[in-house]
Known about the structure:
Layout: H1 3-35, H2 38-64, H3 79-104, H4 116-142, H5 145-177, H6 185-212, H7 223-230, E1 237-246, E2 249-258, H8 264-279, E3 284-293
Parallel strand pairs: 2-3
Antiparallel strand pairs: 1-2
Helix pairs in contact: 1-2, 1-4, 2-3, 2-5, 2-6, 3-5, 3-6, 4-5, 5-6
Amino acid sequence: MDHEERFKKAEFAAMLGVVGNIILAIFKGWIGVIANSRALIADAAHSASDVTASLAVYIGLKAAKRPPDKDHPYGHGKAENIAAIIVAVILVIVGFEIGKSSFYAFFEPIEAPKSVAIIAVIISIIVKEAMFRYKYNLGKKIKSDAIIINAFEHRSDVYASIAVLIGIIGAIFGKYVGIDWLVYLDPVAGLVVAVLIILMAWKLGQESIHNTLDHVMHEEDAEEFREVVLTVPGVKKIDELHAREHGYYVIVDLKISVDPYITVEEGHKIGKVVKAKLLENSDVQDVFVHINPYSDS
């Protein structure tokens, strides 16, 4: 898959999230008001926040596909990681707001939600799980942190909606059997939603920050690059090799040793072959080769 096709698929997925979340947020918010369900209204707010998150991902993808320039010689791939961090921050804020609203509900009289809320939640679970599976598989295929974290937003919505469903059913059941305190299962579900959102955001945000901080690939992950370099005639030894994940692609910096008695031009040609071989890997976008004179010591 070339870069252009990759970004087309990623941008379509991001816009699908925007449109899907707008529809779900309006639908769940409307039913939440009609059914008098705080948990469903909280779930609608979660979907509304996902609209902003999906837009952030879309903007990040647009920035990431720009070619390298004078100020960004390594390209703009990390724009996707930054978009993922923004999404994680948005999720944390929304989680706290939902939690605060649900907590205050315990200090005021509430009524059990109407049964129509159950239908809205089930529809939401089906739609969100489908969106998660589509985006997660695509994100893995095109190696996009932004799309993967966007997928997990949908999965957090699924978990949240399941908690909402349990809370709504419990509250309605309590009303019919005369157990008044069960009505508070609705705001309890809202609190569970809030905690799930914050935990998900924390985990995914950590991963995105780690990827943004210019970490190098672990030795076992970079082993395939070492094997390729050592197949090049004239390479006596690899002195150093760092493979850095720069968003969805990899940049390789390495130092190799060659025969100290060959000409500078011959050494340069060996370096060019090493670079060409590594660039055959679709994940590698750029390679920087430093030539050292080989020594037994």
